[in-house]
Design a protein that fits this description.
heterodimer; A: 1% strand; globular; disordered N terminus; disordered C terminus
């Protein structure tokens, strides 16, 4: 069938780059917005560290501003950067290319998705400019304090935050419908589920989690908006605020916590599963070896996804819940370590005796295995109720979740950008700058978060603006904090190298050709680089094998693309 | 196609090589997309249901339909609205059945489709009028948690009807021009409308149930 005529290639600048329905353009729009807003969150974290490392030295950071920085940093990083970048960015770019489709199945809805996302970001950032500033309630937005006077931004900030989240959820749902349906329906001939690259599996499962978990955030956001704007008492108990009896009575703050974490915990895996998938492909490609235990990897992704819905209350051990509840949630939490550990073993076993090429994407992938293992191990501590109780609300928790769901996924994001940038632009990113960026970021983040575990064991509480006159905190902890802050600013500056590389390579980078990493999956087998509208030219590729045929015996070249048909040693190039 | 069928379907075995190219494939794709959306909406209302049940276990809960002084004791308007939504669903189905036939009557199809939309608008208007009645009787949204949930649920459900009406507008426009795609649009609208009817039935039953029912469900789910 000739597809050249029914692809409706957009002609004008506006339909091609702005109101585009092409998944590749939408992916880049998503990514640019996400990286932009991510840099704002990075600057906020730098400001927080200035206060923590050098308290009192910066007049413009008062307690209110500090809490606003904390809140916005957390919310942006988790939702507006990582979720949007993995699903909207990489999901959009890679799913159709990797499964051999011409585009997403609902391109118009896909376009709406990115514009709703942009609207959500604008509403969120607008809260910096309203009276009272953005909300300072912490990214968990716990009522009653989130909407009461005394919390920064309790008038306008919290409303804009909740509205922005609701818009984001609509955007994510529209995107998610596309990703799921495309994977289910638009795979090319021969692309069975068990031949899909693990990247697609990770994003697919994460999307299902997002579709089922985001409604919980939507429910809590809507009910909190009712409490704030209409005076209902869903979450608000009877309360005295500044000597005044408020109109609320009888509501349940714990109800909010349950709803929030029913979203919040799957959210961790919404970010982690795409990272798992991508890292599997990076390791396999750059180690020139098939992924160890492909089926096991797929099932681990599925099992982690299912389990992630029954562990939420491990975020609430200190909320005064029934001890048997804690027992149940500790058990499920520790069980999740089993499929996760399987994945780590399989990554290491893939590396084992591979023909490892230490390209920049590979460095980031190996860095991820390291930080993820460290962060996962501290998760075993916190998953146990009795160990969690003393460590709760200390810097140990901050160190744990930054290691496991901050640094680890962001290393994968970088690795993935270095890996797929040649396909998106036709040019390689600069290798030297990439290596400087990797080592600075990898070692720097270890220097930030490893010492934080010690602060946590000392009992240094998180969320505090300043630590004066606490006898149990020794002076050495303050020195450590100063060191952490210096390293945090160093790591933040390292990201400028990345940004510069991103722009520089677009104009001056080495031409990459179609398949610079000699990878097997379909996105590297396109007729053009970057792929044009419709992706595949006249003929859609047919898939003949899985995505991990590296170093197959009997073949001269060490990789067999998924659309390679031959069975015997007949490849000569 | 059944749920199981769509999961075990093997689009990669088709001769064309491109799964989503033919018209039938596009229809199937749209139907699966709609099913995914319905799953998301189900999840949304399921979580509202859980919140409702948990909140109903607190001492300040006031039932909505036990005594004449309660806001939902007189359900006449709600029954009337329900009838509107049932009619909308019935006409949708009628239009769907007609559209499937090879020798279909375009006038009947367009007429039933139009009536389905009219009754849906009547439903939304009716709900709005019931809100106004409640307001005038002093049952404001912040009066007690049960009535808050009533406004929340009916409002969200009506919002879903209104979003459906946008799709209905498209379908109606397509059917009016007798575009070959109209059958699929009507098909999708009909599925969505039956879903909305089922959802409303569930919410209606929930909201007018006795507190003992909530207690029993909550106890069964371990929420007490």
């Amino acid at each position: 069938m000739d597809h050249e005529h029914d692809m409706h290639e957009p002609q004008s600048f506006w339909t091609k780059y702005v109101w585009s329905q092409d998944h590749k353009v939408i992916a880049i729009q998503y990514s640019v917005i996400a990286i932009f807003v991510g840099f704002i969150a990075l600057i906020l974290s730098g400001l927080m560290r200035l206060q923590l490392g050098f308290p009192g030295s910066f007049d413009f950071i008062d307690p209110s501003a500090y809490y606003q920085f904390v809140t916005m940093h957390g919310m942006i990083m988790v939702i507006y950067l990582l979720t949007a970048l993995f699903l909207g960015g990489f999901g959009n770019y890679l799913i159709p290319l990797m499964v051999g489709a011409r585009d997403m199945v609902f391109p118009f809805v896909n376009m709406l998705s990115v514009w709703f996302y942009l609207l959500a970001v604008i509403v969120l950032l607008a809260s910096f400019f309203v009276p009272g500033g953005p909300t300072g309630a912490g990214w968990t937005l716990y009522p009653p304090q989130a909407i009461l006077a005394g919390t920064p931004g309790s008038d306008w900030g919290i409303i804009l935050m909740l509205v922005s989240l609701a818009i984001f959820i609509v955007a994510a749902t529209m995107g998610g419908l596309n990703y799921v349906t495309t994977v289910l329906q638009a795979r090319t001939r021969g692309m069975t589920l068990m031949r899909m690259p693990l990247t697609v599996w990770g994003i697919f499962m994460a999307t299902i989690l997002a579709l089922l978990a985001f409604p919980a955030l939507f429910v809590s956001a809507v009910m909190m908006l009712f409490d704030k704007l209409l005076g209902t008492s869903f979450f608000m108990p009877a309360i005295l605020s500044m000597g005044q009896q408020l109109d609320h009575e009888g509501g349940s703050p714990i109800l909010f916590q349950h709803l929030f974490w029913f979203f919040g915990h799957p959210e961790v895996y919404i970010v982690a599963l795409p990272a798992f998938g991508i890292v599997s492909d990076l390791i396999s490609t750059h180690a020139r070896k098939n992924i160890f235990g492909y089926r096991m990897m797929v099932w681990a992704i599925v099992i982690i996804g299912v389990l992630s819905f029954v562990v939420w209350a491990h975020h609430m051990y200190v909320s005064g819940m029934n001890p048997y509840f804690g027992y149940f949630f500790a058990t499920t939490t520790l069980i999740i370590a089993v499929p996760t550990a399987i994945k780590v073993y399989n990554w290491v076993l893939t590396l084992w005796q591979g023909n490892i090429r230490l390209n920049v994407p590979m460095l980031f992938a190996i860095g991820f295995v390291s930080t993820f293992t460290i962060g996962g191990l501290t998760g075993l501590f916190l998953g146990n109720v009795v160990i969690d109780l003393p460590l709760s609300d200390t810097y140990f928790v901050v160190a744990h979740f930054h290691m496991v769901m901050g640094v680890s996924p962001i290393l994968v994001v970088f690795g993935a950008i270095y890996h797929w940038y040649p396909k998106m632009t036709g040019r390689m990113m600069h290798d030297g700058m990439g290596k400087v960026h990797f080592w600075g970021t990898f070692l720097g983040t270890y220097a930030i978060y490893f010492p934080m575990h010690y602060l946590g064991i000392l009992g240094v509480p998180r969320r505090y603006f300043a630590y004066e006159n606490y006898d149990f905190i020794p002076d050495s902890a303050k020195d450590l904090n100063a060191m952490i802050s210096v390293m945090a600013i160093f790591v933040a500056l390292m990201q400028l190298v990345f940004l510069y590389n991103l722009v520089w390579s677009y104009f001056k980078g080495k031409e990459s050709g179609d398949n610079p990493w000699q990878a097997t999956s379909l996105e590297w087998q396109t007729e053009h680089t970057p792929p044009r509208h419709g992706n595949w030219g006249k003929e859609i590729p047919v898939c003949h094998r899985w995505a991990y045929d590296y170093s197959v015996p009997g073949f001269e070249q060490d990789f067999l693309p998924q659309n390679f048909e031959g069975k015997k040693a007949e490849v000569s190039s | 196609m059944s749920m199981h069928g769509s999961l075990t379907d093997k689009p990669w075995e088709q001769i064309s090589g491109a799964a989503a190219d033919s018209i039938e494939d596009k229809v199937k794709t749209r139907r699966i997309g709609l099913r995914v959306l319905l799953a998301v909406i189900c999840m949304l209302f399921f979580l509202f249901l859980v919140a409702f049940l948990m909140r109903s276990q607190y001492p300040d809960w006031r039932p909505l339909a036990e005594e004449p002084s309660h806001p939902l004791y007189n359900k006449q308007i709600l029954w009337l609205n329900t009838a509107y939504l049932i009619l909308a669903s019935v006409f949708m189905q009628w239009s769907r059945v007609v559209a499937r036939k090879s020798n279909m009557s375009a006038v009947v199809m367009q007429g039933t489709l139009a009536l389905a939309g009219v009754f849906s608008v009547a439903f939304v208007t009716g709900q709005l009028m019931f809100w106004q009645t409640l307001q005038s009787r002093g049952f404001t949204v912040d009066l007690n948690p049960a009535i808050s949930f009533f406004y929340l649920f009916t409002g969200l459900h009506a919002a879903h009807v209104i979003i459906g009406l946008l799709a209905w507008l498209t379908a109606f426009f397509v059917a009016f021009k007798r575009h070959p795609k109209m059958q699929h649009y009507i098909e999708l609208c009909a599925i969505y409308w039956h879903f909305l009817l089922g959802l409303w039935a569930g919410l209606f039953i929930l909201l007018v149930s006795k507190p003992e029912t909530y207690d029993a469900i909550a106890a069964f789910c371990g929420l007490r």
